[in-house]
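My hope is that you will study the record closing this message with an eye to the fold:
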Amino acid sequence: MLLRAWTTAAALLTFMGQFMSQPLAAPPNFVVILADDLGYGEVGAQHVGEVATPNIDAIARAGVTFTDGYVTASLCVPSRAGLLTGRYQQEFGIYGNPGKWPYPSSFGLPASQTTLAEALKAKGYATGIIGKWHLGMKPSDNPLGHGFDEFFGVMDTDHPYFGEMPGNPILRGRTPVPASGYLTDTLATEAVSFIRRRAGEKFFLYVPFTAAHSPLQAKPEVLARLSYIANEKRRLFAGVLVSLDEAVGKITAALRTAGVTDNTIVVFLGDNGCGNCRNAPLRGGKGLNYEGGIRVPFVLSWPTALSGNRRYAQPVVSTDLFATFVKLAGGTPPGTVDGVDLMPYLNGTKPGAPHQYLFWGNKSNGAVRSGPWKFLNGKLYNLSRDIKEQYDVAGANPTVVADLRRARTAWTRTLAPALW
């Protein structure tokens, strides 16, 4: 008996030793593609529009669609600040865009805030941003000062798709370079170059396209392909979207060519709802805390770890990418981060919802969501039954209203004075 027990234990130890000697899976690469002013239903698994976006939709089919995926604000600047810091940006004083030029001297992402690029660089990642920064215009605001090894793009917003914009040149690092061709194509070419050069390293590539932000401009040859769209304004937007989708296709093709697709997490999401396209079936759009302003196209693929063509219906938010990526990279997110690691929820090892509450707005006005409930401007909506936010059910649910009001009041106590 003793000999048999010893033999069994030895065999078990041998098996465990063989298992432990296998190399651990390498931390994944991360590619985040951010669309500008893109409506919820225009792309991906939520696609309801007449404009074909096969490359963006392919990411959804290969991975997970967050049906209730949010950003932290319905405007560009605060949304990007939340995404890159993993925090509610109101906690460090960013509530809105800086207004018209000249911008306040205080405009910019505070140096005190740790960005996702800084956190991943500390874990040995090569980091790059290709596209629109929009988090400050001063030399000290340059992405190279916020953890990015490489920067190609524009510091400000509203850059035309063709040609130059005085005061907002295209930069390589800190050096202006001439505009050439169609900006969406140019950004895609630069992203492909980054992938080719960095494929032998761990890398984080952030690609915040200027599309589909105004001033809308489309390539003539693309517009010609869209002659079936009678409405001229809609056809112009469609031309911008088609080129954006083709740019996404170039990025995903570069990952395949480099042989890194399987162990690269690709995320496609919008920065907020739109004013030039369709947020259907949601209410409202850019600048509003109705669903059309803050619920966005949001898909994630990672072939190594996640099966494809899935939908995840619990509310998630862009700040979750920070916590998720840093954990996968072998790090620990700072204690100030509001996002959560999504992987245990996506792979089924952790039940329930990632968030008890999600918040938007400022101290005086805003929204809070918990489960299916959303409280906004004194009205309560059950989003599981009323995605269009048409029916106020506050009167029939006073306990829910009291809970959400209490939670939002507690959250507002964590907010900082506005920087501008």
Remarks:
- The first strand starts at residue 29 and ends at 35.
